[in-house]
Design goal:
By secondary structure, the chain is an alpha+beta fold. It has helices at 2-7, 24-32, 39-47, 51-73, and strands at 13-20, 76-83, 90-91, 95-96.
């Protein structure tokens, strides 16, 4: 960011996609797709009584942190939230911040 200010250039846009996980089957599918899921989050979802609710809570926390970071450092953020059930792909509207 300092380099952009020094050169008087606009900050780059950072694009993040957060994927909601609704079941252990979806978790396996997401890993098969090559989506990296941190071990602690994976374990949390495995023991959760409602993985979709816990997944949404985690995504909201991550999104809030990203928005705060990008606001402080003045980065442009394109945040996309998706749900990927194994039987069909269904997208949720994305949020531009």
């Amino acid at each position: 960011m300092v380099a952009c200010r020094h050169k008087k250039q606009e900050a780059p846009t950072i694009i993040f996609t957060l994927t909601i996980c609704g079941s252990l089957k979806t978790l396996d599918f997401m890993e098969w797709l090559g989506i990296h899921i941190p071990v602690d989050i994976k374990e949390e979802l495995k023991v959760s009584t409602n993985p979709v609710v816990r997944s949404v809570e985690i995504a909201v926390t991550i999104a809030s942190d990203l928005i705060e970071y990008c606001t402080i450092d003045r980065f442009h953020l394109d945040l996309i939230l998706r749900a990927l059930p194994p039987e069909k792909k269904r997208s949720m509207p994305h949020l531009n911040c």
